[in-house]
Amino acid sequence: MSTINYGEKIPNNVNLGEDRTLQRALEGWQPNFINWWDDVGPEGSTNHDVYLRTAVSVDPQGWAQFGHVKMRDYRWGIFLNPGDANREIHFGDHKGEKAWQDVPGEHRANLRRIIVTQGDTEPASVEQQRHLGLTAPSMYDLRNLFQINVEEGRHLWAMVYLLQKHFGRDGREEADALLQRTSGDANNPRILGAFNEKTPDWLAFFMFTYFTDRDGKFQLAALAESAFDPLARTTKFMLTEEAHHMFVGESGVSRVIARTAQVMNELKTDDAQKIRAAGCIDLGTIQRYLNFHYSVTIDLFGADQSSNAAIFYSSGLKGRYEEGKRDDDHVLKGQTYKVLEVRDGQLVEKDVPMLNALNEVLRDDFIKDSVAGVGRWNKVLEKAGIPTRLSVPHKAFNRQIGALAGIKMSPEGRVVNEVEWAAKRDEWLPSSEDFAFVASLMGRVVEPGKFAGWISPPVMGINRQPVDFEYVRFG
Ligand code: BYC
User: Fold this and answer.
1) Which of 147, 229, 280, 281 is at 20 to 30 A from 334, Cα to Cα?
2) What span, in angstroms and rounded, lies between the C-alpha atoms of 210 and 287?
3) What confidence tens digit (pLDDT) does each residue in 77-117 have?
4) pLDDT digits over 255-283, tens only?
5) Atom from ligand 1 closest to the CA of residue 208
């Protein structure tokens, strides 16, 4: 039985109220979503009033309405960017044909797979971040965590809408399965590797939102080119929200670095133990977290050579990042791209058909974008007069997916043997001791305007509110 008026309760621009079949599907799914949120969503948050951004339409006034709300009552809306009735497919074998408003039978299985994979990451990240609210370094940060959590929930709704609207019974089953897989579950895990890792502390959270949400940016941008118009329009709108998530990551890491640099200068030391004794995270630990999150995230782009990727592109399901800005033929047959492989224990480049290398193309676009932000973190160090610099590890470091999986590589890109890897592993990736130390700093600071000692305050608050605004009213 329907308990809510979907037309009103779920802000939308897809005429939800007029589609009975879809309404029935949502009526079946929505209570399961709320149960999932209660079971594995943000822990202990049920009674908090949180200063959240809610989208009530896609226009500039409507997409960011701020106010205190209980997260459980958040209005998870369904929005597609405005459509263009004349939109044409602009890459692949169907280039020049009209974009599809419905799913063509021959592409159904692949589209479903792409939408399910995208959808699966959204609840996964909420599960991964479930415990972080208990150890927030400030009320400002707590609010940002919750904002990200509700928006990942909205992104799940966006994918569930597509599944239920366009994939019939299969879509409904997939929508249910999205709430049944669980991050890190031994029997029924999330689909992609990074979404089964733990996000144990706030440094990991900031690295995750910097790197892994950036995978979201690149994957969504590639899907925003899709010939399947509803997917293109919904992912375009998701991208506007993704920007804030990456901001939380970039500014979060930046604030950790700023505080560490300040203490290094005060104590006139770069000794990790002294910095730790002063309650800050040493730069070596930050670098190791960076190495981990970067390498796990670049695995999310899939194998460097993938026939799936070629099919997705040629059939118009998934384009390249900023497809429209590239000046080639947008069909890519006969073109090549360089990928890495290991030959006689050494990394060598080889040319492969571009269509099969499109996962690598997207990964390389991601890498360029990631490196730019690391440069901005280094500016913080430079300004503080600290000579150390952070850097992303080599592309082949710590890889589990594709041709580079299984080889052992130093962060600088030197192939190493098992013995050296075992000896250096804890210099290159966070050790259990690093995790224990960072965990020891994670106390709960939630008085307005107060911040934990290991992180600097932000430059400004959210939506032009002061930094000491009451972002969360505890119930
Ligand atoms: N872990 O031929 P391949 C986001 C599997 S993030 C585990 O390369 P394909 C967000 C692969 O499934 C954006 N398995 O595959 C961020 C395949 O399995 P099967 C998420 C992996 O299809 C933060 C096999 O290995 N969106 O939005 O070319 C917070 C062979 O691989 C992994 C998308 O990913 C892995 N890392 O490429 C919240 C977009 N990588 O078939 C949200 C949709 C590959 O042999 N997804 N495999 O069983 C896709 O476009 C593609 O599925 C992938 C994989 C690019 C991910």
Assistant:
1) 229
2) 14
3) 888 999 999 999 999 999 999 999 999 999 999 999 999 99
4) 999 999 999 999 999 999 999 999 999 99
5) 23
Instruction: List ligand 1's pocket residues with C-beta within 6 A.
Output: 114, 117-118, 121-122, 125, 152, 192-193, 212-213, 215-216, 219, 299-303, 306, 308-309, 318, 359, 401
| Dmax (CA) of the chain | 68
What is the SS3 assignment for 280?
A: coil
- Tell me the pairing of strands 336-343 and 65-70: unpaired
Helices (H), 41-137: 108-128
Identity of the residue numbered 90:
H
**Which residues have CB under 8 Å from 268's CB, separation 6+?**
none
Alpha helices for 129-195 (secondary structure H): 139-166, 168-178
DSSP 8-58: HHS-BSS-GGG-HHHHHHHHHHHHHHHHHHHHHSSTT-TT-EEEEEE-SSS
Q: Which of 107, 120, 121 to mutate to test the pocket of ligand 1 (most atoms within 8 A of CB)?
A: 121
Task: Give the pair of three-digit tokens for residue 400.
Answer: 């589990």
Its pTM stands at 0.97
DSSP string, 191-258: SSGGGGS---SHHHHHHIIIIIHHHHHHHHHHHTT-SBHHHHHHHHHHHHHHHHHHHHHHHHHHHHHH
